[in-house]
Design goal:
Organism: Thomasclavelia cocleata
CATH superfamily: lambda repressor-like DNA-binding domains
Shape: globular
Protein name: HTH cro/C1-type domain-containing protein
Number of domains: 1
CATH architecture: Orthogonal Bundle
Structural class: mainly alpha
CATH topology: 434 Repressor (Amino-terminal Domain)
GO molecular function: DNA binding; DNA-binding transcription factor activity
Helix content: 40-55%
InterPro entries: Cro/C1-type_HTH (IPR001387), Lambda_DNA-bd_dom_sf (IPR010982), TransReg_Diox_bact_type (IPR050807)
Keywords: DNA-binding
Largest sheet: 2 strands, antiparallel
Low-confidence stretches: none
Length: 66
């Protein structure tokens, strides 16, 4: 199972959904749905988020297979 840690990482970086939306170009609603596990992000979306937050893609999720 893969758990996306976007909300935790945003909190650590002190960044709002709106700010992240502007940085990565992914809509606020989509980001919110990713955080609330309503949708699974694509690899492209994970890459855009990681670049915007200046972190590795691997830092965005927890997995038994990591």
């Amino acid at each position: 199972m893969i758990i996306i840690k976007l909300a935790q990482i945003r909190y650590l970086h002190n960044i709002s959904l709106r700010e992240l939306e502007q940085l990565c170009g992914i809509g606020k609603t989509t980001l919110n749905n990713i955080e609330n596990d309503k949708i699974s992000p694509t690899l492209f979306e994970l890459e855009k988020i990681a670049i915007a937050l200046k972190i590795k893609i691997e830092d965005l999720y927890e997995s038994d297979y990591k």
